[in-house]
Amino acid sequence: MDAVLCFEVHQPHRLRRQSLRQDADSLRSKYFDSSLDREIFLDVSRNCYGPVFDRLAQLCTDYPDFSVNLSVSTSWLDQARRYRPDLIDRLHAIPGGSVEFIGQAHRHSLAGLLEDKTEFKRQLRVHRDAVRSEFGAETSVGTNTELLYNDSIGKAFQDEGFDAVLTEGAPRALTGGVNHVAEGAAGIKVLPRNRRLTDDVGYRFSNEDWTEHPLLASQYASWLSSADGDLVTLFMDIETFGEHHWRGTGVLDFLDVLPEEAGNRNVEFITVSDAVSRHPASSGFRAGDMDTVSWADSDMDASAWVGNEMQREVFDRLEGLRQPVLDSGSEELLSVWEKLLTSDHLHHMSTKGSEDGGVHEYFSYFRSPFEAYSAMSEILDHFEQELEAQT
């Protein structure tokens, strides 16, 4: 059995939670809270990034058949250069043939949801150039922000020369089993994420009420080995290891022994490019533009970002600003607009309840979705005035 182990590596540029900074000498300083960014980035670096990157480098050295795949956002790269440049060096330490970088939208943005895909394609190119510049690597397989995917998004990836796209293995979109390479409407290959096996580690690992707790790497490797199909696609936040699940849960020890246990059960962790070249598409994947899939919540759709009136209003305002910002010719305005389109900001405005709501609250630094909306609205009001003044 082949498996692809993919990690999202991302940190957003966080909005100021209170009023705009009046003494700021730039729009970035006025709108974004660099102090909070620094505090969180350094904390997560101690718990997760440093230990995990070192482990991955060692594991890929010790087990030449073990490979990992990283989807690194340009927002994360910005903060790493500023606060912990050694982390980028640690990524460089992973043997080249054992790591593949996955393409995504610039700034981890929601550009893929814009009706006109021109901006989305531009952002795919910006991210591709950033990965090439930083790591000397090419991106031939992509994933849209939050695994958001529909047929038009797949077509945009294909237009930009990508061979395949990773997305959520939503049953409503699949015409076959999840553990296969599928074919999208535009002919591009699709790697559907195995939600259950990913979330066994990503969400359930430290849940003592879970019937499989504690999860051992040997048990997990046996699940991978016995899975139906020919390819298991795993995609999770890198912060699963050491941040979402703390070191004391044994999650880092789990990672340490996973390659050996997988090898004992004939499970090979390969790169996404190898997955695409080895496995022909054996099922279909169809997601109309009005039925976008994602990895979020039980709905597995776009409602985590545009599901309520606050979110739709903000998204519509951001979409309407795109052309005026481009016409302005201002690099500062464009950079700020790109950061405002980052998915996290609209995620914090979600008013979903039950278990889904708990996930949104966990990731938010605002006291409520309404506070997040208020902060963004104030920023957009000022941004629109600034745009008008400059043009």
Can you walk through the features of this model?
- This protein has helices spanning 27-31, 34-62, 74-83, 86-92, 118-135, 151-159, 195-202, 217-226, 251-264, 272-278, 303-306, 309-328, 331-340, 343-347, 354-363, 369-390; strands at residues 2-9, 68-72, 99-101, 141-143, 164-168, 182-184, 189-193, 231-237, 268-269, 283-285.
- Helices cover 48% and strands 11% of the residues.
- The relative contact order is 0.15.
- The chain is an alpha/beta fold and 391 residues long.
- Strands 1, 2, 3, 8 and 9 form a five-stranded parallel beta sheet that branches.
Major sheet size, sense and barrel closure: 5 strands, parallel
Structural class: alpha/beta
Order of helices and strands: EHHEHHEHEHEEEHHEHEHEHHHHHH
- Under CATH, the topology of the largest domain is which? 7-stranded beta/alpha barrel
Question: Residue-averaged pLDDT, rounded?
Answer: 95
- Low-pLDDT sequence parts: none
Number of DSSP helical runs: 16
Would you count the extended β strands for me? 10
Portion in beta strands: 5-15%
CA radius of gyration is 20 Å
Level-2 CATH architecture of the largest domain: Alpha-Beta Barrel
Shape: globular
The CATH class of the largest domain, by name, is Alpha Beta
Number of domains: 2
Q: Give the proportion of residues in helices.
A: 40-55%
- Taking the alpha carbons of the first and last residues, their distance comes to 58 Å
